[in-house]
Write a structure and sequence with these properties.
This protein has one domain. 22% of the residues lie in helices and 32% in strands. The chain has four helices and seven strands. The strands form two sheets. A four-stranded antiparallel sheet has the order 2-6-4-3. The chain is of the alpha+beta class and 174 residues long. 14% of the residues are buried.
């Protein structure tokens, strides 16, 4: 709400949401509803852990071990602890380049660590300096999700909620 207010005041932004036909992915569970070996219900109490954090904690380094109550998306690896499936769909939207709609019906928070080969494969210069090497012969994100988490990304064409910008101006000087 604060960001929306800032954009409206400083940029005179006017926008609305509209349903348009487009390409997306549905995120689905297996037919039997079971999850894969890499998707586990989280036992982290995120609310309690957040109260113990300093007001403005520094972000962990790019290839840090699992983080608590968050997600990390680096080329070739997607790992999280204590996140909702909605958080996973947001990260998958970035990886897949189109919206991902949660059709799993999985509630609560989850832990996972998915290793995959990005397409296209990033150059070494594009990776964080301390990141682990990526296996060029590893599974695609689609295969990794199916094998490691028991989830499937299924392509579809249909209505997608889109943000339409009606008006925007250069920011006013301070």
């Amino acid at each position: 709400m604060m960001l929306r207010s800032l954009l409206q005041i400083r940029f005179k932004l006017a926008a609305h949401k509209q349903s348009r036909r487009g390409q997306s992915f549905d995120l689905l569970t297996r037919g039997d509803g079971r999850t894969g070996p890499g998707l586990k219900k989280s036992s982290a109490d995120c609310d309690a852990l957040r109260t113990k954090l300093p007001p403005n904690p520094l972000p962990p380094p790019p290839n840090a071990p699992l983080i608590v109550c968050g997600i990390r998306n680096v080329p070739g690896r997607l790992f999280a602890m204590g996140v909702s499936i909605d958080t996973l769909t947001s990260a998958l939207s970035e990886i897949g380049g189109r919206p991902v709609i949660d059709r799993t019906r999985l509630a609560g928070t989850w832990d996972f660590d998915v290793h995959y080969t990005p397409d296209p494969m990033p150059t070494r210069d594009a990776l964080p300096p301390d990141s682990a090497p990526i296996d060029p012969n590893g599974p695609s994100i689609f295969t990794a999700l199916r094998e490691q988490l028991g989830l499937t990304l299924e392509a579809r064409t249909g209505p997608i909620e889109t943000l339409v910008i009606d008006h925007i101006e250069r920011p006013t000087p301070d």
